[in-house]
Amino acid sequence: MSLPVCRLEIGSRMHADLIAAVAEGYPREACGILLGRLDGPRRIVEAFRPAPNRWAGRDDRFLVDPESLRGALEEEGSGGAAVLGFYHSHPDAPAVPSTCDRTLAWPWYVHVIVEVAEGRSVRARAWEFHCGAGGFEERPIALT
Fold first, then answer.
1. pLDDT tens sequence across 109-129
2. Which of 11, 47, 65, 130 could anchor a disulfide with 35, C-beta 3.0 to 4.6 Å?
């Protein structure tokens, strides 16, 4: 049985705000959590929550602050917005999953990567990770 291909939907204004927010972290990777609701294979982003990058010692890695993630998951468990996935920037690198991203990815969740070149956001791409299905698969981002 194959999983339905997810589709990430985000408002145009929120998309612009998200890619602008990650550029503020340059030259370090910025990261955060995507929140919203599920509607079949549609993942509808209703908010994003920046999180401190807790990766120490390297600017080209990220680790979403565990307390930020715990708080978002607790809110979801209490009837709040669903945790749909995560986002992070790739400073001066393409918006494709790195070897480190492949190692740390969580299955099912959407991983949005934003390419930031010389401090300016260039492009956002969405990826979904499947443990047994060859790793990351790109997913469409629908601006609403």
1. 999 999 999 999 989 999 998
2. 47
Q: Where along the chain do its domains lie?
A: 7-143
Q: What does CATH list as the number for 7-143?
A: 3.40.140.10
- Looking at residue 133, its amino acid is A
- Given this model, what pLDDT does residue 5 score? 75
Model pTM score: 0.93
Q: What is the largest CA-CA distance in the chain?
A: 44
Q: Give residue 133's pLDDT band: very low, low, confident or very high (50, 70, 90).
A: low
Q: In b/e form, how buried is each residue of 62-97, taking b as 16+ CB within 10 angstroms?
A: bbbbeebbeebeeeeeeeebbbbbbbbbbbeeebeb
Residue 78 CA to residue 37 CA, distance in Å, equals: 14
